[in-house]
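Lab notebook, bench 4. We co-purified these components, and the gel suggests they stay together. Before we commit to crystallization screens, I want a quick structural picture of the whole thing.
Request: model the full complex, all chains together.
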Amino acid sequence: VSKPLRALAAVAHWRLLVPLALLASLPVWLGHHTFYVNISSQILLWAVAALALNVLVGYAGLVSLGHAGLLAMAGYAVALMLQAGAGHLVACLAAVGVTLAASAVFAVLALRSTGIGFLMITLALGQIVWGIAYRWASLTNGDNGINLGSRPAPFGLSLAGAEAFYYATLVIFLLAVLSMWVFVRSPFGASLAGTRDQPRRMTALGFNVWLVRFLAFLVSGFWCGVSGLLYVYYHQFIAPPAAALTASAEILLMVISGGTATLLGPIAGAGIVVIMKNVASAYIERWNMVLGLIFILIISFMPEGLVPGSVRLWRGAWAWLRSRAPAGAARSGEEGAP
Amino acid sequence: MTLWLTLTVNSVALGGLLFLLSSGFSLIFGLMRIPNLMHGSFFMLGAYLGVTFLWQGLNFWVAALLSAAAIALIGGLIERFLLRRLEGQVLPQVLLTLGFAFIIADVCLMLWTGDPWQPATPDHLRGVVQVTGLYFPIYRLVIVLVAVVIAIALWLLVDWTRLGAMIRAGVDDAPIARVVGIRVSQLFTLVFALGAALAAFGGVMGAPYLSVYPGLDFEMLPLALIVVILGGVGSLLGALVGSFVIGFLYNFGTALLPDLAYVILFLPMVLILVLRPQGLFGKVTT
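Here is the predicted assembly.
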């Protein structure tokens, strides 16, 4: 057996294969129901955005509230390029380029500071993008947004249908997960975590802390731009709310609700938020209030994140049940004895 | 000529309003380092409350003070019982204040609907004054006057009173301040409530001028932010100067480049971050 094949076999563990098979066959499980397949696509595309933000929030310890701005920038770039008559490939490449350039500008400005300052500056920068989208109506068509004529058909495969789009999103999502997996285990990922925990020592060790953070911002911006492409092709429409602070907050909620600095956390978080948003908006109008309440509840009861927090609460409840169970069993035993 | 003059008067008035908003933000974010993302919400909720009090037939100043007091109470309670437990943890503080901002926005939408509310300018503040042949609307001048009075009062409070010295001591080194008998915790609740009250007061003052509508909260929050970044974190003088700079940029930008007016507002912030990250009047921190 050749070396690459053995490496593949080593990687092809059931813990990887089962979820992969599940994801690949998801449309079948969902009965090819367009609505549910679409929700799955949404979860995957937001998971890419959450993974992107997690590079900063989880591994760099830098909380950004401007990522919806980057996502929307990629979306608007595609929409405007297509409107100008460019092809899908050119438009996508240009959009990623624009988003990377914007990320570099964001990073240079926001990295003048860390912690609370970083957060506030990214918030303001995100608002600039929103401001351009909303107020510069001659360019962006303001509040009415921009419609896309069509989805692309890479290699002759049309993505117009819900399932085709799901599979395209899945491929990109898997690429994102793979790149994050490599990233986290790379020396660069380790040095990034180092700048999060001990910036001074990292400087003393000869690392350029600023540069490490800057590159991390670019990685984050790149995947955020990719998710922006998915977003705009999924909806075939983009409007200012995509860049709003609420959208940035939702991505942040995905990262935090799943648990930061983990690979699965943001993915689970994206699932939770997208499902909750769709369920909530089916029954009540007040998604924003639900979002706010979730934030406050998470902070009050599960500061470590929704997934680890639920596990902890569940274990606590389980331990509590177990501690009561023997007493109950003993009592029933006594009753049964005579 | 009249256009320029009108623009200037409007700019100064907006600057005064922005100072009311950002002086509170300067206290909370600049001095106490709490990332208060509900500051715009305090402004909006304060304005809505003020509008409601005015509608009940209350005097304008009474309405403004009542609204400020109500928001001070709300802000103080949130600080005392929720934010206090998260001292020094930026991310949880951000989530908590953001959560409240969303809830306040939704509650306001529920109670006051999506239509804008614009109370009439109070009778005794209506009209114009004539100075050397030029007319100035009284209300705009009153806003500026109030802003200047509050700026002086805050400066006296923080720099020249015993209370201000205690606050500064608590900010600089809370443990040592506690050791010498300063109740830092209570003091911080007080400062937070004061900051919230200033935002609400600004909201009521601004209502006849800007009107109150959903989304005002997240429109004002970045403005408070850029004013504070521009002026220098923790500097009241910086907040005052920054407010007027932004006031001028907003009005002249809207008149000259309407499409880009909102973006132009952020330019000074970008420049300052690149050239002088501590802000115009900020101290260099180590």
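The longest helix of chain A spans residues 306-336. Worth comparing against the SEC data before the next meeting. The beta strands of chain A are 146-147, 237-238.
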